[in-house]
Structure formats: C-alpha cells, structure tokens
C-alpha cells in the first residue's frame, strides 16, 4: 500500500445540486484535485511530469461506491492513496468521510500515462511513481464489463456538442463531465426520489474540442447504462430509492 494523503473539505454551494447534495461530477473533480495536491507535495506535479517526460496522467476507469452523498456545507475529510502499479496502469483509491469518520464515498480509479505528442499510452516509469511508495505488481486488475453496443438498439438518445467549457488542462473532455451528460438524460422526478449507490465509468478514447457526443441510454431495472460515441466512454449507474434525507436504500 502507498502513502496516504488527507485533506479536510467543506462542500460549497456551487458543488451542490437542487437537493443540497454534492454533485457526483464534483466528487470526481475534487478527488483529482486532492491527488494532484499529493503529487505536488511529493515532487511529482503535473508540470514536473510534463516538462521532464512530455507525459500527462489520465484516468481511464472509476468504480464508485456511495453510502451517502456529502451535503451542502458539510465538513468532510478526503483521503487518497496510490495503492499499486504495473507496467501500464496505476491504481489509486479515494475515501470521502464525514466528521465522525463514517465512510460516505469510496472510489477506485485506474490511471495511465499518455504522451502529449502522440496521445498514446506510455509505460509507467519507476522514477515517476517511486515517491508514492505504492506496490509494483505484475497482474492487471480486471476491469468492469459494460453492456455492448447492441444492447442500445431500443434506447434514449441525446447529442452534446463539445464546447470549450467541457475541456480540461489536457485539452480533452474533462472526465467528470461525462457523468453530468449521462445523468442529465434521466427524468427529474426520478432524480428526486433516487440517488446513485454504485457507479462504473470507463474512458476508452479521448474526445476533443469541436466534436459531438452521441449519447445513448438504456435501463435494466434500476440500473442505467450509458454509451458515448460508440463506446468511447461507458457508464453504468446503479440507483436506489431515497428512504430518508441522509441515506438511500441498499
């Protein structure tokens, strides 16, 4: 296991939704911010990686377990740890906890290093990841299996143009943006009575400025399946009915 880094955080108004819950996209964005802070403290900032190796970090997969979404103005603690890595993939966990130490959100993420020039995945260099004290492993962790494209023959569709506001510092669509596009396809009344309890996201290909997002959505019970641009990004959201203001049913 690697070095742990913690940061206290108060949920601001602009990261809260219509139901006073922290937006899932904000949770993902803040997680990236916290990991970046740890990297900077360890001398491995995004600037350092870019200037020395012409590389940048990219998240390719998330698995998120939600016990309860943080609420507006709530004081929480966020902890992260780069747990392990192999020759192509790095694995990092995040834990969002309330003031009593109860776990609210758990995130398992998979990262790669990409060339800024070729936009291709590069090997993980020991020199880059050594300060994190994460374990070097040989095996590749098995990814989640998403619905194939043929499952979306009877589905809802939407088109989202990729504008400047959707881009991050690496020049492609910010990974948190895809969740908003997926969840925005779901009926408002359903969102009032349901909250996500589990989430899987996989980014297969980056999408750049000026392109269009072709979004598809199908349902399997209380699980919504989302496919963007013929599988360039895949999302699966497990929903549960709200039972009280602080929790959702299992």
Taken together, the total number of domains comes to 2
CATH class descriptor name of the largest domain:
Alpha Beta
Q: Specify the CATH architecture of the largest domain.
A: Roll
Please state the structural category.
alpha+beta
What's the helix count? Answer: 5
Computed over alpha carbons, the radius of gyration is 18 Å
Proportion of residues in β-strands: 35-45%
Shape: globular
CATH homologous superfamily caption of the largest domain: Hotdog Thioesterase
Low-confidence stretches: 246-250
Give the SSE layout.
Elements: E1 4-10, H1 24-41, H2 46-53, E2 55-66, E3 75-85, E4 90-97, E5 103-115, E6 121-122, H3 126-129, E7 135-136, E8 156-161, H4 177-183, H5 188-193, E9 194-203, E10 212-220, E11 223-228, E12 233-244, E13 247-248
Task: Provide tags for this entry.
globular, 5 helices, 2 domains, 40% strand, alpha+beta, Thiol Ester Dehydrase, Chain A, 250 residues, 13-stranded mixed sheet, disordered C terminus
Structure description:
Strands 1, 2, 3, 4, 5, 6, 7, 8, 9, 10, 11, 12 and 13 form a 13-stranded mixed sheet that branches. The protein has five helices and 13 strands. The chain is 17% helix and 40% strand. The longest helix has 18 residues. By secondary structure, the protein is an alpha+beta fold. The C terminus is likely disordered. The chain is globular, with a radius of gyration of 18 Å. The protein has two domains: 140 residues, Roll (Thiol Ester Dehydrase, Chain A), CATH 3.10.129.10; 107 residues, Roll (Thiol Ester Dehydrase, Chain A), CATH 3.10.129.10. Keywords: Fatty acid biosynthesis, Fatty acid metabolism, Hydrolase, Lipid biosynthesis, Lipid metabolism, Transit peptide. InterPro entries: Acyl-ACP_TE_C, Acyl-ACP_thioesterase_NHD, FATA/B, HotDog_dom_sf. Belongs to the acyl-ACP thioesterase family. This is Acyl-[acyl-carrier-protein] thioesterase. One of its GO terms (molecular function) is acyl carrier activity.
């Amino acid at each position: 296991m690697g070095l742990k880094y913690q940061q206290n955080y108060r949920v601001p108004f602009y990261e809260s939704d219509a139901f006073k819950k922290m937006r899932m996209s904000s949770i993902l964005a803040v997680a990236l911010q916290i990991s970046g802070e740890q990297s900077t403290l360890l001398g491995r900032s995004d600037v350092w990686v870019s200037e020395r190796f012409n590389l940048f970090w990219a998240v390719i997969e998330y698995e998120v377990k939600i016990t309860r979404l943080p609420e507006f103005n709530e004081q929480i603690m966020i902890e992260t740890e780069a747990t392990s890595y192999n020759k192509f993939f790095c694995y990092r966990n995040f834990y969002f906890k309330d003031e009593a130490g109860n776990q609210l959100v758990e995130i398992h993420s998979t990262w790669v290093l990409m060339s800024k020039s070729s936009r291709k995945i590069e090997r993980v260099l020991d020199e880059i990841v050594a300060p994190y004290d994460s374990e070097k492993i040989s095996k590749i962790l098995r990814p989640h299996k998403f619905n194939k494209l043929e499952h979306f023959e009877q589905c809802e569709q939407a088109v989202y143009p990729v504008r400047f506001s959707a881009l991050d510092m690496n020049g492609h669509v910010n990974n948190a943006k895809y969740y908003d596009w997926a969840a925005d396809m779901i009926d408002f009344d359903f969102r009032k009575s349901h909250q996500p309890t589990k989430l899987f996201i996989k980014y297969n290909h980056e999408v750049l400025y000026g392109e269009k997002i072709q979004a598809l959505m199908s349902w399997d019970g209380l699980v919504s399946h989302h496919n963007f641009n013929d599988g360039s990004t895949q999302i699966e959201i497990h929903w549960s009915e709200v039972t009280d203001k602080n929790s959702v049913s299992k």
